Automatic annotation (TrEMBL), chain A:
The chain crosses the membrane at residues 20-39, 51-72, 92-121. Keywords: Membrane, Transmembrane, Transmembrane helix. This is Transmembrane protein.
Automatic annotation (TrEMBL), chain B:
The chain crosses the membrane at residues 37-59, 79-108, 120-142, 162-183, 204-225, 264-283, 290-310, 322-346, 358-381, 393-417, 429-451, 471-495, 581-600, 606-627, 656-682, 702-721, 733-754, 766-788, 809-830. It catalyses: 4 Fe(II)-[cytochrome c] + O2 + 8 H(+)(in) = 4 Fe(III)-[cytochrome c] + 2 H2O + 4 H(+)(out). Its EC number is 7.1.1.9. Keywords: Cell membrane, Copper, Electron transport, Heme, Iron, Membrane, Metal-binding, Respiratory chain, Translocase, Transmembrane, Transmembrane helix, Transport. This is cytochrome-c oxidase. It comes from the Bacteria. The keyword Lyase does not apply. Residues 14-545 form the Cytochrome oxidase subunit I profile domain. Its main location: membrane. Belongs to the heme-copper respiratory oxidase family.
Amino acid sequence: MRLIPKDVESLWTLFTAPTVWALHFLACYVTAAVFCAKAGVAPFSFEAMRLALGVVTLVALSGIVLSAYLAWRQWGFGSGDPPHDEPTRKDRLLFQGFATLLLSGLSFVAVVFGAVPLLFIGACQP
Amino acid sequence: MTDLSSEDRTAQEARLREVWRTPSGWRYWTSVNNTEIGLWYGAAAFVFMLFAGVLALLVRVQLAVPGNDFLSADMFNQAFTLHGTVMMFLFAVPIFEAVAIFLLPSMLGARELPFPRLSAFGFWSFALGGVFVCGSIFFGAAPNTGWFMYPPLATDKEYSGIGADIWLLGLSFIEVASIAAAVELIVGIMKCRAPGMRINMMPLFAWYLLIVAGMILFAFPPLIAGDILFEMERMFDWPFFDAARGGDPLLWQHLFWIFGHPEVYIIFLPAIALMAMIVPTFAQRPIVGYSWIVLAAVGTGFLSFGLWVHHMFTTGLPQISLAFFSAASEAVAIPTGVQIFVFIATMLAGRVIFSVPMLFGAGGLAIFIIGGLTGVMVALVPFDWQAHDTYFIVAHLHYVLIGGMLFPIVAGIYYYYPLLDARKLSDRLGKIAFWLMFVGFNVAFFPMHLAGLRGMPRRVFTYPADIGWDWFNLISTIGAFIFASGVTLVVIDVLRPKHRQPKGEQNPWNSGTLEWISEPEEKWGVRSIPIITSRYPIWDQPSLIEDIKAGRGYLPDAKDGARETLVTSVLDAKPIQCLRVGGTSILTIVAAFSLGGVFIALTFHWWITTIVCAIMTLAAIIAWLWTGTAVIPKEEMRDVGLGETLPLYTSGPQSVGWWAMFITMAGDGTAYASLMFGYFFYWTIHEDFTAGHAGPGMLWPLTAAGLFTLAWAAMLAARWVNETDRRGLTRLTLAVAMLLTLAACCAGLAGPYLTSMDPTVHVYPAIVWVVALWTVVHGGVAIIMQLYCLARNLAGRMSARHDMDLRNVVLYWHFLVITAITSFGVLGLFPGSR
Amino acid sequence: MRKIGAGAGLPLARRRMRAISLKVSPSGARSISRRALPILLIPLSGCTGAQSALDPAGEEAAAVFQLFLVMVVGGALIWIAVVGLLIHAGRRRETPWSAEKAGRLIAWGGVAFPVVVLLALLAYAVWLMPAIRPWLARVAPAPETIEVTGEQFWWRIRYPASDGMPGFETANELRLPVGTRTAFSLKAADVIHSFWIPALGGKMDMIPGRTNMLSLEPTRTGLFRAPCAEFCGTSHTLMAFSVVVMEPDDYATWRRAQAGGNRPGTGEGKRLFAYHGCAGCHGVRGVTGPATLGPDLTFFGQRQTVGAGTLANTAQNVARFIRDPGAVKPGAKMPAFDMLPEKDIAAIATYLVGLQ
């Protein structure tokens, strides 16, 4: 049984992984900005926030991996090579799968990049 | 399939020609045909570019030697402000709209984009706004605060005079045109492709433009929201950016750069899109890595919204915030690199014919790569702390924009010129122009990197003699003039009379994409709409051109005397509707000029003229909608040829109008979200955001939210009642909904009004008023729409089957009800009623 | 439209070695750039200048300069490789690459290589941020904080009280001890300005309604120039201050002199200064009350320039400035005093230059 049908008939699936990136980015930026602006008011420490954002990062990365898996499945697990330019519904689906897979890869890297600051910066200083 | 006799074909062609005819005489300017609008748009943008180029030369002359007094300080400040403003708003963005409007229909195999009158409206708005903004410098009244308009310098009326108003209002007007173009392009690309052109067959240009139009939709509205706050401060002294009264100049910087950074990619991607069309032609093979390009376009589109704070690295934000933006700014280099490698890979896998378009393309890439590398540098926070606001940045941004945008545009001009005139531009002049531009550019801008790191700040009108910048500046000025001579040569090549040159063939470069089927002298776009089975149909479908010309495709005729094109499904491009698009009309010009009148009158605070122009705009738009949209056709179905019969009228998500409303409201929602961002921004920067000022209370805001919800429910009921074909009851329901809306608007204003919140005292009452007003104004627009539906119903122009107007208005209401509940919920409940 | 006089040069750099109680000692320099590859310095030679980020004299500037060198070399190599490949790709070849091979080029050259390089670079730079701009609360010993306020178009500078000496105000010239971290509390009085001493480190904006903090540690003595780095109006160009980095002993002496004594000056100029109302805006400690509108002029004669980096500090130039500030510095807030008798202007100028 498949929870998500193999062939999702929508253009929107293409944007799944970048949307996860965007949400992760927003979560990190907004949390840090509000925490630092309201310094002293928040009931938790910078370290705790850092840890929480680390968890958010892991969640985001797993979401992207899931999106990548679904895309890989739609792409037939790499059974056919690009360019997927035949005038058939099948090739259109393979193209969507492949493009989504590539975007998942980029989004994964972008989320990893976005987590680098959490490793090195340990205070709100300007 | 049997072929038609030649008489029948001639008769078809005559009918088509008559329908798509461009009017002559002064009425020529009322044309809405995409080829005319595209050409005017492009020509106007180019003229603005030359004007801004002259300003740049004035700047360079002033800086050629230290202590120069060629320009006064104030004139210099006006010149560089206008140079940046015009290049960004009046050249870089509009030129891509121009190219897209010109090329897209034929590239997609469509007769027209779905809303040709909207394109015309956009063009006239742009032209009028542009002349207004540029003209100001001849009266010494140009904006002089830098193109980024930072308050409190730009809100200081004594310093900037009406220059800042001209900037804000003139450009808001042009932003309206850009959003109109975005709506047009998204719907056109999604819904108007030739049958068979599935999503994996779309020309890459269309992919890029789809992403760019989407970006415009989310990037421009924050600036419009910022403009509103800014003008409210300048006109009525509402202290959004005045620190003394709780405002904060940084909010403007956020809103400006949330627009400003995606803007760079909005400029850059369409130019790269041109490269993606040019490179395969001259490599004589399909592009290698079609999916990679899609990845790059979509990826850039997303990442570009996570970069804006890299313009604010020195504003004293926490390092952790800066670092997030630095990370995204590094990540965006990856899709950019992918695109460059796709072009190189395509060239390596093909047999390259080197030509003038390729020369400009490759030269542009060589320049752009330097800009990209310095971009990676300045995206790193520590380096930017030094480089920010120096000539290093001036060099960087010109390497990016001229290499990544101007050179590809010139490549595009040389490549696509035959579509205008069936003749090529001169190879010899092109090569000379290229070398002048390439060498001149590098001579002008490379030394600026060094001048900047040796401490030369931006926007200085002179500099001391012995600080070590003399030679750099002199060389830059010389380079600028060499570069300008190259640009002049391109202009000469385009404008020189070519009637002695023989007309060439239709597809001189042997390209494979569909835009090369269009014939310069015919206005119908495509003689008949073909079925597409390849990414490069001209290469792979041998009888394509012949079939098209013989009228063997869809819609080979115009029997009803209407301009028709096909609407197809988003993913697989199956024909679903025969769409009748608007023809020649003067209403678009009237609407654009009246709207322009509103903005211009506001600049000078001529309130009565403003109101008169606003009423004229409304009248023109309603006349335009009434006569030109949701027309009930005489017959339901239309034989479109090839044995297919399609409906002429659709409503709801099937129709292009519904999508246009959806997309417009997505942009509108973004502007609203930006205002709410402002609300919470003020909350974060203050310990007590209200500063002890009374809020609007809980009662009235929550009442307003409730009434808006009821009105929305009434609209849903009206749609349902209309579907059951009970006209009288529909009228009644609409009337009830209207009264509820009116009551909701009054309740919305009652909160801040009855608690006598004074918006000039502190930023808290000011932002409360703005949020309430924004929502109530949308309520007012809703009332106009309800009246319109009522009138359509009374006039018998709306029925159970033909309910497009009502459905679009209900869609508007979905957005409005979310806005209203958010606005009044937040105003009433956050940060706690008092 | 007003034009500025052709002779309005900014002669600071020429005079940067002018004798002041300043001992330039090379031993104070701990520039990281010395450790950088010498070969890189060849194209950058001649990068000296009182306002150059390529001639670091502070911790932050040195670290950033090193980052810059790494990136320039890397960037140049990448550019040569990619453009070389582009030129190669543009030539005719007998057998074109296969689509698979070309696809692999995209994957390796366009994706894998940039991902690795950018990640490394990002980590380096993000690690550097707290290293060069440490959290002030954790710096020991706590650095002294000087308050600098940007005003159209000059700099108000307030030194804090220390060692029992009172704090004092000065303008347009900052003196710092070498080898010690000093913090700056940065404010703006009217519009946004930006505080930037290129030789010592990066910039920090001065924003109305906000107080930004920055700390810098000079590593060698010298005279440097610091321009306003955010466009702030008509004379944004003519808004700079001088930075004198001194040996700690000299610095201490100077601090004592500033905080303790004052040099009231003598002569007719002193009387005219008060008589013509100059004291309404400008303060001279010990002579007038504290004035808030314009720059403090207490030890004016010690300063390098008149008009915040506009003209060399000579009696002639001071007189010229008093006569019509707008002529040498368009948009300056100080009104013209050309209605005063010429000899009064000269006397006031002489008096001011004498405030050593």
